[in-house]
Specification:
alpha/beta, binds 5,6-dihydroxy-NADP, Dehydroquinate synthase-like, alpha domain, binds zinc ion, Rossmann fold, two-stranded antiparallel sheet, single chain, 14 helices
Amino acid sequence: MMNFDYHNPTHIVFGRERLHELDRLIPENAKVLVLFGGGSVRRNGTLEKVLAGLGKRDVIEFGGIEPNPRFNTLMKAVDVVGKENIDFLLAVGGGSVMDGTKFIAAAAHYPGNPEDLLKHGFAPLPIESAVPLATVATLPATGSEMNMGAVISHKSGKLPVMSPLLYPQFSVLDPTLTFSLPPVQVANGVVDAFVHVLEQYVTYPVEAKVQDRMAEGILKTLIECGPVTLAEPENYDARANLMWSATSALNGYIGVGVPQDWSTHMIGHELTDLFGMDHAQSLAIVQPSLWKIRKDKKRGKLLQYAERVWDILEGTDDERIDQAISMTRSFFESLGVKTRLSQYRIEQADIAKVINALENHGMTALSETGDMDLAISNQILQDAYA
Ligand code: NZQ
Ligand code: ZN
């Protein structure tokens, strides 16, 4: 196991009927900006409950944060924070609203040009403070409710933003708030959480037994609860397990002391940016082909994954690995998430645009060992085409 520090300050408030506790969780004299997306929270009654929970506080609403939140939209909220002297941000929504709110929190206190905040990649932002923020998560997928990261769409690309100052102070996770999700978003959430685990687990072995078994436990839970949730949208136990799986997949806990990959995400972000597919859809395309091409680099962990997650015990090493890859692809497809680039009406020649974008964003040495160059990314995308 490698050395690590772990500190996650986010207070999780989990379970049914917890929104009235916002009154206890947010400072009494706070002036709150409530941020949300395209209106699902208005239609399903969540916003109303949030506003009731905020009691007599001075509250302003900011709606319209789009999926894959855009810099220009977020800057409008930064203006509101300044003009209205907002001192607490409450994100009510999925990963896009939570991520957007994190960026707003950083940008509102930043003395320089906020566009510069998008230039630091995975390094912590050079900021000294941020507006305190919290979330009410309505979509289990990204883990944004309990991590310090955000991904922001800008004309120059889909760019990560990280800072320990951007951990939510608390996150309310009420599985009943996810009952209203359309099936496509449920499926997206399962795939996203699944791939978050894979990027921290299918690398090379370092004898990190707790992290491995936690990762395997989350993967098995997603395999079990994903389909049940799709079949029975109001099954509370399935929703609750799905929600806690997604949070656990990317709150840093399974990633301590182990190598991490993130190549599937980096290539996936370019696909979303160029072709507009959902985040999870991009991951479902890249992951199986990445494994096919990189089988030899990930052999030990792929065999462990085959045995412990899919119970594959028969056959040669190669046969077991191939079967695990094909079962992963089938799992994504069984949820309704397509796994081939050609299924998104993209020409094979467009792969060159993805490679170009990876180059422009400096994504030329990906993987857990930094040995994945553009030629390998190209091979993966060619394999993923059809
Ligand atoms: O905008 P509204 O009307 O709210 O509708 C949303 C949106 O259309 C809808 N939705 C959310 N909760 C709902 C609901 N509809 C009905 N009932 C509910 N309870 O779902 C749609 C998608 O929402 P979005 O927030 O975009 O989805 P998701 O949570 O998958 O977030 C994706 C974003 O997160 C980033 C992605 O890149 C993408 O921009 N990621 C963030 C990460 C992080 N912060 O750690 C890591 C991830 O790898 C990912 O990159
Ligand atoms: Zn993701």
